[in-house]
Amino acid sequence: MRATIILTACALALAACQTPSATPPAPSPEQAATGVTPNTFRLPTGTGCNGEVERFQAVMDNDLATGHTTKGVHTRVSAEIDAARKSCAAGNEGGAIGQIRATKTKFGYPSL
């Protein structure tokens, strides 16, 4: 008799854990999840210092949009990226790439 009561209690407990059969709808592409880079994100493909500058700016813009950085940090990093952009435009390829690498290191981004 006691075994029957225990089995009945277990069965009732398991029945309470059942999930509904309907699955929630998938979010639409317009609904970006916080903290998630959209699957439409593509890095710029340029070469040399122009490519380095534009790729890092794209990463920073994405990090701001997804909440991985603050507006204040984005502003500071973007100012340093702009300085590298000016060095690049002036023909200082090595200097511009060095500036980008230094900024990445300073703010904790990998410098590959």
Name the features.
112 residues; mainly alpha; 4 helices; globular
How would you explain this protein's 3D organization?
This protein has 112 residues and is mainly α. The protein has a domain at 44-112. The chain is 60% helix and 0% strand. It has four helices and no strands. It has helices at 2-16, 48-65, 71-89, 93-107. Helix 2 (48-65) runs antiparallel to helix 3, helix 2 (48-65) runs parallel beside helix 4 (93-107) and helix 3 runs antiparallel to helix 4. The protein is globular. The mean pLDDT is 82.
Broad shape? globular
Secondary structural class: mainly alpha
Query: How many E strands?
Result: 0
Instruction: Give the C-alpha Rg.
Output: 26 Å
Distance between the termini: 70 Å
Low-confidence stretches: none
Helix content: 55-70%
Largest sheet: number of strands, sense, barrel closure: none
Mean pLDDT: 82
**How large a portion of the residues is in β-strands, by DSSP E?**
under 5%
In DSSP terms, counting alpha (H) and pi (I) runs of 4 or more, how many helices?
4
User: What order do the SSEs take from the amino end to the carboxyl end, as H and E?
Assistant: HHHH
